[in-house]
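With this grant's support, the team has encoded backbone shapes as discrete tokens. A representative record is reproduced below.
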Amino acid sequence: MSNHLVNTIPLSQPSQTQWKKNVSPGEAHAAFASQLKNAIAGVNEAQISSNDKTKALAQGEINDLHDVMITSQKASITMKTAVEMQSKVVEAYKEVMRMQV
């Protein structure tokens, strides 16, 4: 039986810049953009992997239905997590916009 690695949304460790007390808005923006880009790339890779394995199964190139189903479920869970995170971020943004200064 083959050993399957779990592909998740990549979350890198904070860089030295992010640990500084005085982080400029530009540095914070760049760090956030990088994290977001990596997370979206992870979701995309999971979807592509699922599509490739499904096509290979349909064409008879592979016979391991379990592997195809596991890959499909990982992609589905990864996408659902990303969508849920997006809705939480939008909800938090709306809450911040309602705050009175």
